[in-house]
Amino acid sequence: MTVRSLVVRSSVAAALGLGSMVVVAPQAIADTCADGTARIFAANSEPRCQTGTASYSTETITKVCSMNGADVVAEATYLTSRKKTVTTTLELSNGRCGRLEVSGQQSVTVTVTPN
Fold it and tell me: Which of these CATH numbers, 2.60.20, 3.40.50, 1.10.3470, 3.30.200, describes 20-114?
């Protein structure tokens, strides 16, 4: 393992420990949906392409990617250990991807708007 990959892995681990969502650089996997859409990654199922607005409450969403020409807003609702509901928002555009915290996830609403 190179020093560079160790630093990258450590940075990602530290970022995940600090917040429930992390925006990551564009990836080749994000290029599999049409421009103006989003790619949705759910635990235990195949990724899918999305347009418009969709809510996910029976699946755990792990990652969301915007395709070129799309603005994507993902609002995730979590139940904390203190039984409080917390909502976090992830805003992505033009090929950017973001990860969602899985622990405590109750629902995710993803809205895709072509730009």
Answer: 2.60.20
pTM score, two decimals? Answer: 0.72
Which tens digits make up the pLDDT trace of 32-50? Answer: 899 999 999 999 889 999 9
**What is the spatial distance between Cα 41 and Cα 49, in angstroms, rounded to a whole number?**
9
Helix (H) or strand (E) holding 48: strand 48-50
Environment class of 39 (CB within 10 Å of its CB; exposed 0-12, middle 13-18, buried 19+): buried
Closest CA to 52 of 109, 5, 12: 109
Under DSSP, the state recorded for 108 is: E
